[in-house]
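Hi, here's the filled form for the chain we discussed.

Project: internal
Contact: R.S.
Residues: 159
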Amino acid sequence: MIAKAKAKSKKPAAGAKTKSAPKAGDKVVLLSGGNPQIAKGYGDEPVQAYIAAMPGWKSALGKRIDTLVTRHVPKVHKAVKWNSPFYGMEHDLWFLSFHCFNKYVKLTFFRGSSLKPPPPGLSKYPAVRYFDIREDDDLDEAQLTSWIKQAAALPGEKM
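And the returned structure, exactly as it came back:
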């Protein structure tokens, strides 16, 4: 369910213990579809742990997506929630996430129906649009960059 963007976010209390992201060499469990099981966490470290644990060709794609977002949205906030990387402009207000499946990686644009042109994948939520990327796809990086920039300029979704 998509919540209102104005909801107040909760930050971990100072000194609160949080699970750290897996380190190089740590064994990561792959869930259904080869999606890495990474503990919820905020910042670049858990996102990089997720990307490193993505199986096969998906890891290079995850790096590519992360690089595009970081390059074109320099003040981006990052997190891993529900075993997926999230990108936003404010704490807990997100514009993009992605998730591994067996044969593709699904990008979720939370206000994708407002993008020009909108990504092709429809959702049961009218504002959400999906974009699936398969191993042999010829990714239009210019279009993906345009969507990322547009999405970052829109109000984020509370998740």
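Let me know if anything looks off before we file it.
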